[in-house]
Specification:
Blueprint (H helix, E strand, L loop, with lengths): L15 E6 L3 H12 L4 E4 L14 H6 L13 E4 L39 H4 L1 H5 L14 H16 L24 H12 L4 E3 L38 H7 L3 E4 L3 E7 L5 E7 L5 E11 L5 H8 L24 E8 L14 E3 L15 E6 L6 H6 L10 H14 E8 L8 E9 L5 E6 L4 H20 L4 E4 L38 E3 L14 H20 L4
Parallel strand pairs: 1-2, 1-8, 2-5, 3-14, 8-16
Antiparallel strand pairs: 4-10, 6-7, 7-8, 9-12, 9-15, 10-11, 11-12, 13-14
Helix pairs in contact: 1-7, 1-12, 5-12, 6-11
């Protein structure tokens, strides 16, 4: 898959205005905003430059071989442990990486499901509303929902989000630019069961086009959304939206197959270059006047820790000691159901209806947390993954009966997913493994994680409600996936948290490092709390806001 010829090539030994590490949900927006504002930008992305023509429905390539989630050039293992006193294991998760993200131009926005919930005003000030939580990093944000609302709207209109406001949605300054996606069978069943119980289902907001928009076509309902790139460019990834606009300025070079391994500072304490391995594995370094890390909530802290020096012995931007700490992943629980009549939920996108009746913390539950419920096919959307995962608890795994159940389940199955909070705990972290390295000698990314008991309780609560909803919808049979501490995280949040106090945060409210004045961090790592399960829209709203702050500072010679 040869990369498109770049519109501009910048020499590595002459400083560009900005180097952005990562091209995903936040990096793509920052690249577009800074380049259209007249700054020279180099985007370093460790994955290849795939286009819509490179994507396929091949489950073996996408899921089993992990083409989009594996490093494209060499073995890059991760290790996992659930206890900070334990030794992390590279095989603790059955061979799956504990931190799951895409390595491709456009990042995880290329293979995500496109669920686009806004956070609510309470998410930004929940500690003030509820009080402290002992033994946690539970904290208010240094910004409010009202400050971020214009940027939520900007994301929805500039990248293309389909939806309509629901009964519990936060205030908005503008409607959605596109009507909601057509409801599918799982959405109809969720609505039926929810209304029978007095709940309030609503259309799911998604970053997928229900109609043609800004020169891109509408979704064709192929069913290959989660884990796959969109061959139609109907999914509103940064690959399909803002990155082409950034390149069109002639001021943005996207440099794929560029794996960053260090950010250097000069004698003045300021960042002056970014070192990386190029497509041939050779060491390179790009000079820069300022650097923005947007590599995700796992790779960003890993890079900062790998950039330790005599001036920054605990890692770059880590005077607080909190780089990599307070990892949050959102809690998830799953219920499965089958129905007598065909559902055929493999058609179209993953989610068309959600329930937010349980979003807020309710002291009557006896624990912190809230969340949302949706219905979807989940991994059962595609034939191979359906056969390899759940066809029903206790069913045979081979032979005639297995084939019968696979055939029946593929067309009659619905999953109900509960998505909830992730309490920030200092013990949950991304760090450098002391013994395991990748093929280039970089320390492996080590994940230490165990869900807070309240999050596990909320996962169970939402699973219970999911079973009630499916029973009310007339399910023939239901079964549960056990609610246990998670070992795989696709939402990577909180590891370089935002705050006003340099002793308790890594970046300020403008995403500038407290320690290094020309270093900015803007991705999932900046989040102070996890929200209730779908963080991408918030990450992108923060990126638009950060871009405005960075542009203003640059024009005032403050960077």
């Amino acid at each position: 898959m040869p990369a498109p010829e770049p519109a501009v090539r910048f020499p590595t030994r002459e400083p560009v205005d900005f180097v952005i590490v990562g091209s995903g949900a936040s990096g793509g927006i920052l690249a577009r905003e800074l380049s259209t504002a007249g700054f020279d930008v180099v985007v370093l992305e460790q994955g290849p430059y795939r286009t819509a023509a490179d994507f396929s429905h091949d489950e073996m390539v996408n899921f089993i071989q992990g083409e989009m989630t594996s490093h494209p050039g060499w073995n890059d293992p991760q290790t996992f442990r659930d206890d900070p006193d334990a030794v992390a294991d590279a095989n603790a998760n059955g061979g799956l990486p504990p931190a799951l993200y895409a390595r491709t131009v456009g990042g995880a926005s290329v293979h995500f499901s496109g669920n686009y919930w806004r956070m609510r005003p309470l998410d930004f000030k929940e500690r003030s509303l509820l009080g402290p939580m002992s033994g946690t990093g539970f904290a208010d944000w240094p910004i409010s929902y009202d400050e971020l609302e214009p940027y939520y709207t900007r994301v929805e209109w500039e990248i293309g989000v389909s939806g309509e406001p629901g009964p519990f949605d936060p205030p908005r300054s503008k409607p959605y630019p596109l009507p909601p996606m057509p409801v599918k069978s799982s959405g109809v069943l969720l609505e039926k069961g929810a209304r029978a119980l007095g709940l309030h289902p609503q259309a799911a907001p998604v970053a997928i086009l229900s109609q043609a928009y800004n020169g891109r076509p509408a979704c064709v309902h192929c069913g290959f959304c989660m884990g796959f790139g969109c061959e139609m460019n109907a999914k509103s990834s940064t690959l399909a939206t803002v990155l082409p606009q950034a390149e069109a300025t002639g001021r943005c070079e996207i440099r794929p197959l560029s794996t960053v391994y260090r950010v250097d500072t000069g004698d003045d304490g300021r960042v002056d270059q970014v070192r990386y391995y190029d497509a041939q594995g050779a060491e390179q370094a790009q000079k820069a006047r300022a650097v923005i890390l947007a590599a995700n909530g796992a790779e960003t802290p890993r890079l900062l820790l790998m950039s330790a020096s005599s001036a920054h012995p605990d890692g770059l931007a880590n005077s607080s000691g909190l780089v990599g700490k307070y990892l949050m992943g959102n809690g998830h629980s799953t219920l499965h159901a089958t129905f007598d009549e065909p559902v055929n939920d493999w058609k179209s996108i993953q989610v068309t209806r959600i329930i937010h009746d349980f979003y807020e913390t309710d002291p009557a539950r006896g624990h912190y947390g809230g969340g949302g419920i949706d219905a979807r096919p989940l991994l059962n959307a595609t034939p191979l993954m359906h056969a390899l995962t759940e066809t029903g608890m206790g069913t045979p795994r081979w032979g005639k009966d297995f084939r019968r159940d696979v055939d029946f389940g593929f067309s009659h199955h619905v999953a109900v997913l509960g998505s909830t909070t992730s309490v920030p705990l200092e013990r949950n972290s991304v760090s450098l493994d002391p013994t395991v390295t990748d093929d280039k000698g970089r320390p492996a990314l080590r994940v230490t994680y165990r869900d807070h008991d309240d999050d596990l309780a909320m996962m169970q609560f939402l699973q219970d409600r999911g079973e009630e909803i499916m029973d009310a919808a007339g399910a023939r049979r239901t079964w549960r996936e056990p609610v246990v501490p998670q070992t795989l995280l696709a939402h990577l949040l909180g590891t370089c948290r935002m705050g006003n106090d340099p002793a308790t945060s890594v970046v300020d409210a403008a995403h500038r490092s407290h320690d290094v004045p020309n270093l900015f961090i803007c991705d999932g790592s900046s989040l102070v709390s996890s929200g209730r399960g779908q963080p991408t829209l918030t990450i992108q709203a923060l990126a638009f806001r950060a871009a405005d702050k960075i542009i203003e500072a640059a024009r005032n010679n403050e960077i």
